TrEMBL record:
Family matches, as Pfam families: Glucosamine_iso
This protein's UniProt keywords: Hydrolase
Pathway the protein takes part in: Carbohydrate degradation; pentose phosphate pathway; D-ribulose 5-phosphate from D-glucose 6-phosphate (oxidative stage): step 2/3
Chain ranges of the Glucosamine/galactosamine-6-phosphate isomerase domain: 8-221
Catalysed conversion reaction: 6-phospho-D-glucono-1,5-lactone + H2O = 6-phospho-D-gluconate + H(+)
Protein family: Belongs to the glucosamine/galactosamine-6-phosphate isomerase family. 6-phosphogluconolactonase subfamily.
Domain of life: Bacteria
Name of this chain's protein: 6-phosphogluconolactonase
Length: 223
């Protein structure tokens, strides 16, 4: 894993947004349509604020979350809600959102249709991931019901996931989609996550699911 340490969070968010924009621009030079996958949660908002202002051919960019909590979009827990407020605004409002949520009682009710919508946008051109202190990435949580199947080489692109630490049911991109991305970045902050990602490099992947992408990822960290 390549680790980039920044003197502070503000600088990191600016530099990372710039890097993602350059990679998207490069991908757009070679392909008609490109895809960007991003995390939800509490960390990436400031990157989204900067990225959404970048001059890119956003109308040729498809944006998909790494994972979604099975809650309606107006829930404060909705990653889609965050994306719509912080990334798919300003210049980036021209991008196409590939949904990972549709109104239904459970992810299994909609997973087929959501996977069909995702398929034309794979492999991912640019992948930004987050990580929890428990070493989950996307919704690949240690101890989750479908973790082994989602880490398998023949996993379908999208799977439902339930885990003790996850709160509500989830839907997540699986390991083959994450490891198939053309470019992979992980954004983390704080001492606890720094220690966790260093520990993850020495643990089996079912204990530290983020390990499935560590070999190919650039990790961006600031205190
Ligand atoms: O639940 C989630 O957690 C991770 C990490 O989130 P953070 O709040 O610690 O930044 C996130 O990457 C994932 O997309 C999200 O659904």
């Amino acid at each position: 894993m390549e680790l980039v340490e920044y003197p502070d969070r503000d600088l990191m968010m600016l530099a990372l947004a710039d890097r993602l924009a350059s990679e998207l621009a490069e991908a757009l030079r070679h392909h008609d349509r490109v895809s960007l996958s991003v995390p939800g949660g509490t960390t990436p908002g400031p990157v989204f604020d900067v990225l959404s202002e970048q001059a890119l051919d956003w109308d040729r960019v498809a944006v998909v979350l790494n994972d979604e909590r099975w809650v309606p979009e107006d829930s404060p827990r909705s990653n889609t809600g965050l994306l719509k407020k912080r990334l798919l605004v300003s210049k980036a409002s021209a991008a196409t959102l590939i949904p990972l949520y549709a109104e239904a009682p459970a992810p299994e009710d909609k997973i087929g249709a959501l996977a069909e919508g995702l398929a034309p946008h794979l492999p991912l051109s640019v992948l930004l991931l987050g990580m929890g202190a428990d070493m989950h990435t996307a919704s690949l949580f240690p101890g989750a019901d479908n973790l082994a199947a989602a880490l398998a080489a023949d996993a379908p692109p999208l799977m439902a996931m339930r885990a003790e630490g996850a709160g509500e049911p989830r839907i997540t991109l699986t390991a083959p989609v994450l490891t198939g991305a053309m470019s992979t970045h992980i954004l983390i902050t704080g001492a606890e996550k720094r220690a966790a990602i260093e520990r993850a490099a020495h643990l089996p992947v079912h204990e530290a699911p983020v390990r499935c992408v560590l070999g190919q990822a650039t990790v961006h960290w600031a205190e």
